[in-house]
Amino acid sequence: QAVANFSTCFTCVTNALLIYILAVTSLSHVGPYRWLLLSFAVVDILIALVHVAMIPAVHMTDFGYIFWSYRWIDGTTEQGIWSGLVWVILFYQTFVLIAFHYVYRFV
C-alpha cells in the first residue's frame, strides 16, 4: 500500500512538472512533439490514479486471464466491469502513444 501511494504521488508530481514545463516554455524546435509529450504525461497521471484507486490484480489460467480489483472486491459486478475497462483502456493507451512516438520520430 505504501509503495503504491508513493509511486502514485511521485508519478503525479513529475508528470505535473512536465506539463508545467511544456506549458510555460516556448521552444520552437519542439513543435508538435509537445502535444505528444503532453498526452504521455496526462495518460500517465490518469493510469497512476486509477491504479492506486483499484489495486488491480491478474491471474493467468489455462483458459485466459482473471482480472480483479482488491479495493472493489466486495463491490457490484457493474463497478468491477467498468473499473476494469477503464484500467485496461488506460493501460493499453500507453502502447498506442508509443506507436505514435515511433512514427513521429521516424517521419
The first-to-last residue Cα distance is: 42 Å
What order do the SSEs take from the amino end to the carboxyl end, as H and E?
HHEEH
Strand content: 5-15%
Total DSSP E strands: 2
Question: Any low-confidence stretches, pLDDT <50, length ≥5?
Answer: none
Main sheet summary: 2 strands, antiparallel
What fraction, in percent, of the residue positions are helical?
Answer: over 70%
Tally of alpha and pi helices: 3
What is the typical, i.e. mean, pLDDT?
Answer: 87
Biggest sheet: strands side by side, in what order? 1-2
Give a quick summary of the entry.
The protein is mainly α and about 110 residues long. It is built from three helices and two strands, in the order ααββα.
Give a verbal description of the structure.
It comes from Pristionchus fissidentatus. Pfam families: 7TM_GPCR_Str. This is G protein-coupled receptor. The chain is mainly alpha-helical. The protein is 70% helix and 9% strand. The chain has helices at residues 2-24, 33-54, 77-106; strands at 56-60, 65-69. Strands 1-2 form a two-stranded antiparallel sheet. Strand 1 and strand 2 (65-69) form a beta hairpin. Helix 1 (2-24) runs antiparallel to helix 2 (33-54). The chain is globular and about 50 Å long. The N and C termini lie far apart (42 Å). The mean pLDDT is 87.
